[in-house]
Each structure stands twice: as structure tokens, then as C-alpha cells.
Amino acid sequence: MIARAVVFEEAGRAELRPVELRAPEADEIVVETRYSSISSGTERLLFNGKLPGMPQIRYPLVPGYEAAGTVVSVGGEVQGVAVGDDVFVGGSSCFADVAAAFGGQSSRTIKRASQAIQLNGIAPEQAPLLALAATALHGVRRLGDVRGQRVAVLGMGAVGQLAANFLYAQGAAVVAVDRSPQRLTSVRAAETIDVSAAPLEAQLAAPVAHAIEATGVSGEIARCARAISPGGKIVLLSYYNEIAAPFVDLFVKEATLLVSREWTFNDLLFTRDAIAGGVVSLDALASFILPIEQYASAYDTAFNDPSVLKVVLQWA
Fold this sequence. Notes:
The protein is an alpha/beta fold. The protein is 24% helix and 27% strand.
């Protein structure tokens, strides 16, 4: 089986070209991709050859873990998924001639049926963002019960916006922090703080209970520590090469650092239902859509244009 895929041939070079898919197994489905989205964090690191902590990754590879499409074939042992179903599949290790990291940017993917998420009415162009939204939810859940508490989110990129939305839905008083006034206009928050002119601690009227660090800059961890009340928690909702922060800021507040990995399967299910029920909206994040033939422009925008929070690719 042949598919088209975005292939990072080597660090710094991408191509849209045919790839060979392995044969599907009895418990797997074949999905025709309709939409995928670009991870401006993980895929940028892969493209630049700088994804830390993963020496096993080799080029050429198919990137991406944010994809959704329509089931076109099911194995003999598959139950609960049928041809014609619209599903989120994320990534896939289904290629015979290239590696996958993590294999979502392909016109066809093969996935174990038990790992596919039925869309249940979510707009197909929004469905690829399930992965990022579930990652944001996972980070918010690390804080526990936040009802009635002020929680700061540093960084109003896509994952920060989604974390703020989930906090708001759970009854927290969100303090949204960014250096871009434009990004602050679209977030649901009790307070917004533009730190382009003055640091957070100079503008914060009172300490927050907890903070979520979503900028990806480890130096901001100390700023989170200075913003929280004693005994507060700091969730690291980014991926860092190394963490460097003055210990004294964490020490004085006796802060708890919580590392948040990626989503769980239950996070995906909860997120899907929250989106379908209107609790969380992806409208603002899924509005920039380009056809796959414009992949080079799409990746350039995703990597270099901070005004665009998310780039969605249309395959079919």
C-alpha cells in the first residue's frame, strides 16, 4: 500500500512524497487522513534535528501525531469501528521504508482499532487538535481541584490557551500571561497580563494559588515561583532540553513542581466530549487551514509566525 507523506529526509529538509505502508494486522484499521495539524514544538525540534532525549530517532522519518480521517478498511478482529467512521488516530508506526516520529503526517495510516477515537460529531478540521487539547487537560488535572482558585497560565500559545479554557471550565479564576496582546484577546480569563512592558511580578496584584508554565522557557519557572502563594504548585506543560531556574525562588515558596507528560486515552475521551458539548472550543485554534500541497508554506508558518497559533493541513 502506497501513501503520500510529509517526510523529514534529514534535519532541515522536508518533502511530500510517496511512502510504503506495511500490511495491516487483524486488529487494525486503515484510515484515510482528512486533516492533520502541525506541532510547532515537537515537529520543529525534529525538523531541526534537536529533539532532546530521543537518540533512537532516525531520518528519513514521517513526523506528526495530530491527525484525523475516515476509516476505509477494518481487520477481521476489529469490533466497534466500521468503514466510514470518522476517527482521531494521532500518529502511527505503519511505514515499511521510513521511520515514524510519530507518523501522523500521511495520507493513510494504520492504527490499532482500540486506539482510535470516534469523533462523535466534532468537526473533522478541528479533530487533529484533540491531541494538544488532551495534553493541556492532562496538565490541568495535575493540579487537582482548582474551583475558586486563581491560577496563572504563562504562555498563550495553543497549549496555554487550551489549558486556560479547561481551567475556566473547572471553575478556576484564570490569570492569562503573555507578551503578545493579540494572544490575550482570545483567551477566557478573569485577568490578562501583558508582560511585554513589565514583568509579571510587577503587575500581579496578589499571589496566585498555582501556575502553569506553558512558554517552554525554563527560566520562566522562577517567575512562576515568585507568582504563587507559599506551598503552591507549578505545572510544567512544555518540553525542555534542560531546566534551569534559581533554586531560591522555589525554596522560599516551598513550591511543588509537577511535570506533565502527554495525554492518556481517558484524557482524549474526556476532551472529545468536552469539545462536542461546547465546554471547550477549538474554533480560534483551527481556523488557519492550508491544502497539503502547500506543506512547505504551512511548516514555515507554523515554525516562524507567532500570530498563527495552529496550522491545519487538509489532505482530502
